[in-house]
From TrEMBL:
SUPFAM superfamilies: Periplasmic binding protein-like I. It is found in: Cell envelope. This is Sugar ABC transporter substrate-binding protein. Its main location: other. Residues 1-21 form the signal peptide. It comes from the Bacteria. The keyword Aminoacyl-tRNA synthetase does not apply.
Length: 323
């Protein structure tokens, strides 16, 4: 009798351990012809976001899938509420472009607990709070650190390692802003003659970038390089420079990341010196990754999109291919 009890206890412990292991795994996704998908967008106030949303909507329409779309309007709190609404609607999966790294991590865990797999696109979350392959399926996007590094290396080569730089950062707490600064700073610190005079957020917005540039330009008239974390802030900075009587491309080199058609045209015009692409057309890759996951294929923790660069030597030829 005692042996039977011990055996039962051992079986019970084994089952408990199995249940615990299953609970820590990612939610499964059945293979279906059509899915109900959530897409929690962070904002829609610039060409990059508009192009990304269109790509996600177009691909859903092409596949005949139902897309539950929300726009957080630049609010992390609203985006959390948007994802919770998708969980309540019992979508099959969620595509999330996190507004900020920390606030969105907990709601990813809520989706996991509800049995809904989450795919992060274009922005990541704090890995100490939610991990790829454990709490969400994967991150699909660009290598933001590499983007910042490429800009830094271009400046170093162009200026022979001597530059007075103003840096316009993206949204505070977002992975692109964090990583584009890290990659850039890692290059700049190798060159004693390259100095970051000021670094301040322009929140990835054109008018905010203009306002910040106006203020920093008054404090640092010796600036000869502007590094903007996206096209919108670069275009705002150009407006501020011109209003101050400076010539972008001659008096001050302007560099940016994203590669929208307006920015590439400014490269053609000589006002922007260099742009690293960050392609917003996520639809095909996002949905094909979801189908692969449902089919049981192994999905890497990060799927990095290939990105081009635009400069005086190729901008005219590539202009029509920019988003």
């Amino acid at each position: 009798m005692k042996q039977q009890k011990l055996m039962f206890l051992a079986v019970g412990l084994t089952l408990s351990a199995f249940t615990l292991a299953a609970d820590t795994g990612l939610p499964k996704l059945a293979v279906k012809a059509k899915y109900k998908i959530g897409f929690a967008q962070t904002e829609s106030n610039n060409p990059w976001r508009i192009a990304q949303t269109k790509s996600m909507q177009d691909e859903a329409k092409k596949l005949g899938w139902q897309l539950v779309y929300t726009d957080a309007a630049g609010s992390a709190a609203k985006q959390v509420a948007d994802v919770r609404s998708m969980i309540a609607q019992k979508v099959d999966a969620i595509f999330l472009a996190p507004r900020e790294e920390k606030p969105l991590a907990p709601v990813i865990l809520e989706a996991k607990k509800a049995g809904i797999p989450v795919f992060l696109i274009d922005r990541n979350v704090d890995q100490s709070l939610a991990k790829a392959g454990t709490d969400y399926v994967t991150f699909i996007g660009s290598n933001f650190i590499e983007e910042g590094k490429r800009v830094g290396e271009w400046i170093a080569k162009k200026t022979n390692g001597k530059a007075n730089i103003i840096e316009l950062e993206g949204t505070t707490g977002s992975s692109p802003a964090n990583d584009r600064k890290t990659g850039f700073d890692n290059v700049i610190k190798k060159y004693p003659g390259m100095k970051i005079l000021a670094s301040q957020t322009g929140d990835f917005a054109r008018d905010k970038g203009r306002q910040v540039m106006e203020t920093l330009l008054q404090a640092h008239p010796e600036v000869n390089v502007v590094y903007a974390h996206n096209d919108e802030m670069a275009i705002g900075a150009i407006a501020a420079l011109e209003a101050a009587g400076k010539k972008p491309g001659k008096d001050v080199l302007v560099l940016s990341i994203d590669g929208g058609k307006e920015a590439v045209q400014l490269v053609v015009d000589g006002k922007i010196a260099y742009v690293v692409e960050c392609n917003p057309k996520f639809g095909p890759k996002a949905y094909s990754t979801l189908k692969d996951y449902a089919a049981g294929k192994k999905i890497p923790a990060k799927i990095i999109n290939p990105d081009r660069e635009f400069h005086a030597g190729n901008a005219k030829q590539l202009l029509n291919t920019a988003y």
